[in-house]
Amino acid sequence: MLPWKRVLRPLAALLLTAAVAAVPAAAASASDAPHSGWNDYTCRPSAAHPRPVVLVHGTLGNSVDNWLGLAPYLQSRGYCVYSLDYGQLPGVPLFHGLGPIDASAGQLAAFVDEVLAATGAAKADLVGHSQGGMMPRYYLKFLGGAAKVNALVGIAPDNHGTDLDGLTHLLPYFPGAEDLLKATTPGLADQITGSAFLTRLNAGGDTVPGVRYTVIASRYDEVVTPWRTQYLSGSGVRNVLLQDLCPLDLSEHLAIGLFDRIAFHEVANALDPAHATATTCASALS
Question: Are 103 and 88 spatial neighbours (Cβ–Cβ below 8 Å)?
Answer without folding.
Answer: no
